[in-house]
């Protein structure tokens, strides 16, 4: 396998801080068996006896038997979604290791925040078992590393994957985590895998925010403002971790929530603002879900919905890179939601939530500089009001102009 990362693999000590030794050993044992089987298959494929013109029937039968036996161990299905294959160990260990390395970088001040684009995901992995595509709980291992390795007193995990992070939830409910780890999850309510995360089971450090099927952008944002943000602020973490799953995107068929890439930009901006207020902006984000299903004959193959996943991840990373909070106005739904292009460009576009997305407002570079200044300083002054009024006026004029061109029905 080509070398694709410079991040170290997670150590056994780091894994054992979240997972039971029995679980870790079982995963590594089966990974090792499959790796050895595949290595032996490679040797058989290049064995000169397999292609020699004078090979005997005995040798042919012997090689064929060995090949068939080894092929039985080319993969191992833990469940319908979770399969150990040849490079699973390397990928899983480096995914958890990358999350720990990101914690090191943020806690030592090497970077302000970090995003880990890793596979496999992790938040379904329980302390004692693998499930739901997940072998090791990357975000949970990172949280334990922050507590044990850096002495962080309070770690918060915000999980906006459309599926409940049952593994992270389980760890947060252990008695020794009651005042050290906060877990907040926004997810589609059952029936939706893994059919857990009921709000009725919320505790002092576990806040599950359930969403109905077909939840809209505005409904999601309302729940986030009223349920997630107060809980997160009250906990006042020293480090904020994000389980960044993008399968709540409307194009993802694994669930039924209607978010767009702009919503992931918005929610990340909200989290950046809170982190700036309570933990010096220290954020580590780890990629979780984003999937679609393709059927082929009687088999099921899972692949990632690349366009939705790419757009959503890009929006999330852009918000982390900009580290520009969106102001917390009560009437935010009537104001500016997102800047859709780089603020340095001379012409930009702003979206207003109470108008169709086909209607756009073009602002001058001077107005955008004024907007950026307001967003960076976090002050809702006359400049903000003036800019919003100007934007709304332009939008209403454009809307009226478009309406006048629509023919009257006969």
UniProtKB/TrEMBL annotation:
List the Gene3D superfamilies.
Histone deacetylase domain
Tell me the InterPro entries matching this sequence.
HDACs, His_deacetylse_dom, His_deacetylse_dom_sf, Ureohydrolase_dom_sf
Give the protein name, as stated in the record: histone deacetylase
Q: Which EC number(s) does the record attach to this protein?
A: 3.5.1.98
The record's Gene Ontology biological-process terms are: epigenetic regulation of gene expression
Identify the enzyme class: hydrolase
Please provide the record's keywords in A-Z order: Chromatin regulator, Hydrolase, Nucleus, Repressor, Transcription, Transcription regulation
Q: Which family does it belong to?
A: Belongs to the histone deacetylase family. HD type 2 subfamily.
Can you quote a single GO CC term? Answer: histone deacetylase complex
Instruction: Give one Pfam family.
Output: Hist_deacetyl
């Amino acid at each position: 396998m080509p070398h694709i990362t410079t991040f170290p693999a997670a150590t056994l000590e780091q894994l054992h801080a979240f997972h039971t030794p029995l679980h870790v050993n079982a995963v590594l044992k089966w990974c090792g068996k499959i790796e050895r089987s595949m290595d032996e298959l490679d040797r058989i494929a290049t064995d000169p006896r397999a292609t020699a013109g004078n090979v005997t029937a005995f040798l042919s039968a012997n090689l064929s038997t060995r090949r068939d036996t080894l092929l039985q161990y080319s993969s191992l299905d833990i469940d319908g979604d979770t399969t150990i294959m040849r490079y699973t160990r390397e990928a899983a260990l480096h995914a958890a290791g990358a999350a720990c390395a990101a914690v090191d970088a943020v806690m030592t001040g090497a970077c302000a925040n970090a995003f880990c684009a890793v596979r496999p995901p992790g938040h379904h992995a329980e302390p004692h078992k693998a499930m739901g595509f997940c072998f090791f709980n990357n975000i949970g291992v990172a949280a334990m590393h922050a507590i044990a390795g850096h002495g962080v007193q309070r770690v918060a995990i915000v999980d906006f994957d459309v599926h409940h992070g049952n593994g992270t939830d389980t760890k947060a409910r252990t008695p020794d985590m009651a005042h050290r780890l906060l877990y907040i999850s926004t997810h589609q309510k059952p029936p939706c895998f893994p059919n857990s995360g009921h709000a009725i089971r919320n505790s002092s450090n576990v806040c599950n925010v359930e969403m109905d099927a077909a939840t809209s952008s505005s409904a999601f944002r309302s729940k986030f403002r009223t349920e997630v943000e107060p809980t997160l602020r009250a906990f006042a973490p020293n480090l904020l971790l994000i389980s960044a799953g993008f399968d709540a995107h409307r194009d993802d068929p694994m669930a039924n929530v209607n978010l767009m890439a702009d919503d992931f930009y918005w929610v990340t901006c909200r989290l950046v603002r809170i982190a700036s207020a309570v933990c010096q902006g220290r954020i580590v984000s780890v990629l979780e879900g984003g999937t679609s299903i393709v059927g082929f004959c009687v088999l099921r193959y899972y692949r990632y919905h690349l366009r939705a996943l790419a757009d959503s991840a890009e929006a999330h990373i852009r918000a982390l890179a900009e580290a520009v909070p969106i102001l917390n106005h009560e009437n935010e739904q009537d104001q500016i939601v997102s800047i859709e292009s780089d603020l340095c460009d001379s012409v930009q576009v702003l979206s207003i939530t109470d108008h169709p997305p086909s209607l756009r407002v073009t602002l001058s570079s001077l107005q955008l500089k004024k907007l950026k200044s307001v967003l960076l300083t976090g002050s809702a002054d006359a400049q903000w009001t003036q800019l919003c009024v100007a934007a709304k006026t332009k939008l209403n004029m454009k809307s009226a102009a478009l309406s006048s061109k629509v023919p009257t029905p006969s």
